[in-house]
Automatic annotation (TrEMBL):
Keywords: Cell projection, Cilium, Coiled coil, Flagellum, Membrane. This is Flagellar motor protein MotB. The keyword Cell inner membrane does not apply. The keyword Zinc-finger does not apply. It comes from Aquimarina muelleri.
Amino acid sequence: MKITILISILIFVLLTSCVSQKKYTDLHNRAELCEGELRNASNKLLMLENNLANEKNKSKALEKQGDYFKSTNTNLLDRLSDLSIVSKFGAESIKKSLEALNEQNTYIKDLTGSMQRKDSLNLALVMNLKRSLDDFDDEDISIEVKKGVVYVSISDRMLFKSGSYSINESAQAVIGKIAKIVNDHKELDILVEGHTDKVPIHTDCIEDNWDLSTKRATSIVRLMQTKFNVQPERMTAGGRSEFVPKATNETSNGRASNRRTEIIILPKLDQFFNLLTPPEVVSAD
């Protein structure tokens, strides 16, 4: 309002006074500058009013939410009190459920720890076996971990003559080195499996491939017991015949790969099954 009056006075003075063109121009520019500042001030005031209105709306919304939460909490407390949700029986049931969950959690931790120890033992076994059998051809011996246990696979051309289950004299050194390592781990059992190709066999001493694979596995077990002092109660001999091939039986190389004996080093079965048995869960009913 003051600025408007000032502008009016300036115009009046200009009209009634004799001023130079330069002074007139300066006064005119100052008047326009004042009008611009007035407009800016008016716009800022309008923005402040709008912001204040928004803040008031937000404050009202927060107040409504607070009232709602208070009402909800009050209703929940009333329901808990009226319906007696946390009764003595309910508390005992919850306690039993928590105890059962703690037992399950302990079992899972124990199982995980046992599996980690087993994996570490398998790694140590593989390293010891590879170091001990380093002098032999890798094509005739392979060592790997499958299904959580250690497999030592030996080709039959190293162990036996064709169609025979008598162990070659030169192959006994291999069995002896393996026996020495398994004797250092009394907590482990040994499963020996014989495998053949699918070429049929029948002689006076051998009925078929089932018979040949079983007799070859038995020969290995017997040698480990009698010459290398592996406890017989730790060992199992089994024949798989032609039914678990590693390669195709349609080629000579494939059939050679399938004719093998596998020495499997694994945990004692009773300990293994005990490990897999979870604790009995107490019902919370």
